[in-house]
Automatic annotation (TrEMBL):
Annotated organism of origin: Gracilariopsis chorda
InterPro entries: 6-hairpin_glycosidase_sf, 6hp_glycosidase-like_sf, Glyco_hydro_37
Protein family membership: Belongs to the glycosyl hydrolase 37 family.
Protein's name in the database: Trehalase
Keyword check for Hydrolase: yes
EC number: 3.2.1.28
Length: 601
């Protein structure tokens, strides 16, 4: 198979608004820019969080709502505004999505804990059991007998076939990359079936929509999140107990993964988004969202950011294209999962109005894609080798030599793609002098200079120069632990930059802790004398102790923590209030405790 990369093609939207509104007619109201401005930017707005409005339901057909809206004056009285809101919208139907007790949940300790012989193990037992019980609090399922055609006319929720887990707080739906760490935590809690079902919901979204959206809401249908579905499939694959189970899982997953990676590439390839740049020939991707309005769930906040841009540069008040560009960058920043961070500012002026996320080639995104392509090559070869020996699928159907050859060819194709991306990462995103990765500013044709934990991701993905020695590995470990300024008493900061944004110093996000620990553990396998194992344990221990102390004092798990403290202090900043729950925090804690249980004994 030959590899073609179209340099001149425009990026493909993940979903056109016309298709979205056809599949989910309620979106024609909840994603209507003028109606959103009318409701969300009104001084009479009765809710503090923009997401509250778009999570409501319509009381009548979308056409009727839009017709009534068209009759309203642009400057309504408080009574007119309130009457329209009460007539057209209501609180979500609690019968549609219900609390769910997973079928594989038990009130017994996870098996990895019950086998331990540790002093003061009761400390660990109590902590772990409390986390496990919280899966019941976060588990949800759609009441499918209540899902009718009326649902798509009135609700922004996208139904899912299997039980799912919400992050918690304001996030009452399934989220793409959160699901990876939720699945990891479920596996450690001996809830493998729940983990598989959580991932199968993402399969369903790919099979029905063509991609995995940010979350299962209609207002997320123009963007995705970090493409970790292949990594999630690998996590499940490794947790399965037999070869037959693993083969069956790959047979189910591979067609989905191929479709998802293809749709992501079509919308995010650097060659499509920035064909004019000098590095357009490199196999790299950027976050990119095709939109011409503010995010529905953050409409008021995005409008305020545009107003701030105009206040800083008044001549932009009539520059519609600059305003739309900013809204695209804000949406791309949300797609990155790092919403928001100095990584996207592209200059020293740490201001959200300067966000240029689509102009940044992210180190983390391309590392994730490199690993996905490498894993896809391995998955296809695994199937080819199994079929050579068995001559049949996991379900007993005969396999032809052509089918085996197809998997071998696809394995080689993904190997080629991965090799090209590795070359691009090392050439563009990796600083061989600093032994660290940096994002690349397309407009300025240089790296951004922002030091972030994302800079370790090429090593996590296995994308480092083949000439590395143990000395390089030692220097890399020293950089993280002693030079970067990222390691603190409560874990690792996401960046070394102080700003008002939640993905900057001093916030410590659980998934990034997991990436850091896993990076060092992988490095230790290749270079046992590098001290990377000890560094991984130290990072895990600092975060685990902080999370434990926060739980002791407040009985909550935060979405993010303040890395400066070992007391479990919550992180601050961002466009919404700090949240608790919390799906990926619980999952990360359990995943780390599996390898470092002694940290709490």
């Amino acid at each position: 198979m030959c590899e073609k990369r179209h340099v001149s093609s425009s990026p493909s939207p993940l979903m056109l608004p016309s298709r979205r509104d056809s599949l989910f007619p309620a979106a024609s109201v909840f994603c209507h820019p003028q109606l959103l401005s009318f409701v969300q930017n009104s001084p009479y707005r009765p809710f503090t969080d923009s997401k509250t409005f778009v999570d409501m339901q319509l009381t009548t057909h979308p056409h009727e709502v839009l017709a009534r809206f068209a009759e309203l004056p642009s400057q309504p009285t408080p009574e007119q505004y309130d009457q329209f809101l009460r007539w057209a919208f209501k609180q979500p139907d609690t019968q549609l999505v219900q609390h769910h007790t997973p079928l594989d949940y038990t009130d017994s300790l996870p098996s990895f804990v019950s086998q331990l012989q540790l002093p003061n193990r009761y400390v660990l037992d109590e902590f772990v059991m409390d986390i496990k019980k919280r899966w019941r609090m976060l588990a949800r399922s759609f009441s499918h007998h209540n899902i009718t055609e009326q649902h798509s006319l009135t609700s922004t929720l996208i139904p899912l076939p299997h039980p799912f887990f919400i992050p918690g707080g304001r996030f009452q739906e399934c989220y793409y990359w959160d699901t990876l760490w939720i699945a990891k935590g479920l596996i450690v809690c001996d809830m493998l079936q729940s983990a598989k079902d959580a991932i199968r919901n993402l399969f369903h979204l790919v099979n029905t929509l063509g991609f995995v959206p940010n979350g299962n809401r209609v207002y997320y249908l123009n963007r995705s999140q970090p493409p970790v579905l292949t990594e999630a499939v690998l996590v499940i694959f490794r947790a399965l107990g037999s070869t037959d189970e693993r083969i069956e899982w790959l047979e189910e997953a591979l067609p989905v993964l191929e479709r998802e990676l293809a749709s992501f590439e079509a919308a995010h390839a650097l060659s499509r988004v920035h064909p004019e740049t000098s590095i357009a020939h490199q196999r790299l991707d950027v976050y990119n969202v095709v939109t011409d309005h503010a995010r529905p769930e953050s409409f008021k906040e995005d409008t305020a950011t545009v107003d701030e841009m105009i206040a800083r540069a008044p001549h932009l008040s009539t520059d519609y294209h600059s305003q739309i560009d900013l809204l695209r960058h804000l949406a791309a920043g949300a797609e990155s999962g790092w919403d928001y961070s100095s990584r996207w500012f592209c200059n020293s002026d740490e201001c959200l109005a300067e966000t240029q996320a689509t102009n940044v080639v992210p180190c983390c995104l391309n590392s994730i894609l490199y690993k996905a392509e490498s894993d896809m090559a391995a998955f296809h070869m695994t199937l080819a080798e199994y079929y050579k020996l068995s001559s049949q699928t996991s379900s007993g159907h005969p396999v032809t030599s052509d089918a085996i050859r197809m998997h071998i060819d696809k394995s080689k194709l993904y190997e080629t793609r991965a090799a090209k991306r590795k070359h691009a990462i090392i050439s563009v995103l990796w600083d061989s002098d600093q032994l660290f990765g940096f994002d690349y500013d397309v407009k300025e044709a240089r790296n951004t200079g922002v030091l972030s934990i994302a800079g370790i991701m090429p090593v996590w993905a296995g994308c480092v120069d083949d000439s590395w020695t143990v000395e390089h590995a030692k220097q890399f470990v020293h950089k993280i632990m002693n030079v970067s300024g990222l390691l603190h008493d409560g874990g690792v900061a996401c960046t070394s930059t102080v700003s008002k944004e939640q993905w900057d110093f001093p916030n410590c996000w659980p998934p990034l802790v997991d990436f850091a620990v896993e990076t060092l553990r992988k490095l230790a396998v290749r270079f046992p004398e590098s001290d990377a194992d000890r560094a991984a344990e130290e990072i895990a221990a600092r975060f685990l102790r902080s999370a434990y102390r926060g739980w002791q004092s407040e009985n909550v798990f935060h979405e993010k923590y303040d890395c400066r403290y070992e007391t479990g202090k919550r992180g601050e900043g961002g466009e919404y209030r700090p949240q608790t729950g919390f799906g990926w925090t619980n999952g990360t804690i359990m995943w780390l405790l599996k390898d470092y249980p002694h940290c709490l004994s």
